[in-house]
Write a structure and sequence with these properties.
Chain lengths: ~110, ~110
């Protein structure tokens, strides 16, 4: 079955540490997205990519970095510059940018310890 | 003003009740509209798209009013399994905007 796989499901980060969240899709979707969700808030866009080797900042890109070396993969790195990284991170993909509903991965819950 | 606004609820209703959620959006150029369902600590899942003429999927009916920039979701004959947070979603050019969600609890 096609879908999006995020790993790990839970991740703990120490202060000053960079961590990378994995997102892989086998849906042959062109567009991929990273969102952050905090309790009681809507999803906020971190980065998105429409094609391989190209990506754009979203509303809250500071302290995050991404790469898109393959169509199937869109990893997110949470750097030490992100001062409040504890959140639920969701990766999504779509057939074309913005026009169709997204398919989401099951998410990664990141906690700073 | 947020781009997509929803009443956060919570809505607490008995089984069998009819419940309606509303959503307003600020970008008049938006073309695509959706309702997503999100269970606690899970990812959002597409419930239904919303079309200008209104559309129905079983017990769920979605309506769009472009003039008022307003979207609604009606759930008839509520089931316990309908308990979740419902997210209103509106597209932009390159991505989509999510409302913060309306929480529904259906009680026996």
């Amino acid at each position: 079955d096609g879908g999006i796989t995020q790993s790990p499901k839970y991740l703990f980060r120490k202060e000053g540490q960079n961590v990378t969240l994995s997102c892989e899709q086998n849906l042959n979707h062109d567009a991929m997205y990273w969102y952050r969700q905090d309790p009681g808030q809507g999803l906020r866009l971190i980065y998105y990519s429409q094609i391989v080797n190209d990506f754009q900042k979203g509303d809250i890109a500071e302290g995050y970095s991404v790469s898109r070396e393959k169509k199937e993969s869109f990893p997110l790195t949470v750097t030490s510059a992100q001062k409040n990284p504890t959140a639920f991170y969701l990766c999504a993909s779509s057939i074309v940018t913005g026009s169709y509903g997204y398919t989401f991965g099951s998410g990664t819950r990141l906690t700073v310890v | 003003r947020k781009e997509v606004e929803q009443d956060p609820g919570p809505f607490n209703v008995p089984e069998g009740a009819t419940v309606a959620f509303n959503c307003t959006y600020s970008n008049s150029a938006s073309q695509s509209f959706f309702w997503y369902r999100q269970d606690c600590r899970k990812e959002p899942k597409l419930l239904m798209s919303v079309y200008s003429s209104g559309n129905e999927d079983g017990r769920f009916t979605a309506q769009l009013n472009r003039a008022s920039q307003y979207i609604s979701l009606l759930i008839r004959d509520s089931k316990l399994s309908d308990s979740a947070t419902y997210l209103c979603v509106v597209n932009r050019v390159n991505d989509m905007r999510f409302g913060a969600g309306t929480r529904l609890t259906v009680k026996p």
